[in-house]
């Protein structure tokens, strides 16, 4: 994410965390697809864990789950709301700020990117998707969601907090993932019944990394 978006999350961490928590209580969001996307013994990385709502749910349901979040203030809010996440949150970001996975058992079986990739400019999206490969074992899955229609963005693509949104669509993400060596397994699109933060529609996509992909070399 750009520095303005990073500062927005840092400055408004408490308010954003409260909104995320309220949203999860009222609407399942990406969590409604966890059972379809993952096996019970999967080790899962929540990329852009934010306020920790999805990560806490994964842990409560018995998954071996960790989170990756670049903003210290958001990590603090996550642990404040969900003390069980203490020690499960890594500092890191896509594509160039990936954490060392040695201390958490190496590459993961799966990852979620809930409302994360839309903060990256389109020019950085392929690099971000490609960087996911080093976080996953061959055959690993990615469950990603992006807002595909908003009403609260200014001419620069920023919301009232100052966060940048590229407007990336499901078809574009599908192309980036396929170019990076993933195959598409499923896609769900639907309305946000609450219109939260100006969001009207979401797309959620499920991908699987090819078993024979070299996670260290470009495709």
Structure keywords:
30% helix; 219 residues
In short:
The protein is an alpha/beta fold and 219 residues long.
Description:
With 219 residues, the chain is an alpha/beta fold. The longest helix is centred in the first third of the chain and has 14 residues, at 13-26. It has a 7-stranded mixed beta sheet with strand order 3-2-1-4-5-7-6, with helices on both faces. The radius of gyration is 16 Å and the shape is globular. The model has no long low-confidence stretch (mean pLDDT 91). α6 (122-131) crosses α7. 42% of the residues are buried. The protein has helices at residues 3-11, 13-26, 34-37, 53-60, 72-81, 122-131, 170-179, and strands at 43-47, 64-68, 89-90, 108-114, 136-150, 182-191, 199-209.
Topology:
Elements: H1 3-11, H2 13-26, H3 34-37, E1 43-47, H4 53-60, E2 64-68, H5 72-81, E3 89-90, E4 108-114, H6 122-131, E5 136-150, H7 170-179, E6 182-191, E7 199-209
Parallel strand pairs: 1-2, 1-4, 2-3, 4-5
Antiparallel strand pairs: 5-7, 6-7
């Amino acid at each position: 994410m750009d520095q303005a978006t990073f500062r927005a999350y840092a400055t408004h961490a408490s308010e954003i965390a409260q909104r995320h928590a309220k949203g999860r209580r009222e609407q399942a969001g990406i969590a409604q697809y966890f059972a379809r996307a993952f096996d019970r013994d999967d080790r899962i990385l929540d990329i852009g864990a934010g306020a920790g709502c999805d990560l806490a749910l994964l842990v409560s349901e018995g998954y071996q789950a960790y989170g990756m979040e670049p903003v210290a203030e958001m990590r603090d809010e996550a642990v404040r709301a969900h003390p069980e996440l203490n020690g499960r949150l890594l500092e890191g970001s896509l594509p160039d700020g990936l954490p060392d996975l040695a201390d958490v058992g190496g590459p993961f079986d799966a990852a979620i990117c809930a409302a994360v990739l839309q903060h990256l400019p389109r020019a950085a999206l392929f690099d971000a998707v490609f960087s996911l490969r080093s976080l996953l074992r061959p055959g690993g899955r990615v469950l990603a969601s992006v807002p595909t229609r908003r009403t609260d963005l200014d001419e620069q693509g920023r919301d009232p907090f100052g966060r940048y949104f590229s407007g990336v669509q499901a078809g574009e993400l599908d192309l980036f993932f396929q170019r990076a060596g993933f195959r598409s397994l499923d896609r769900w699109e639907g309305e946000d019944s609450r219109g939260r933060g100006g969001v009207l529609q979401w797309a959620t996509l499920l991908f699987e990394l090819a078993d024979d992909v070299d996670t260290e070399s470009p495709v």
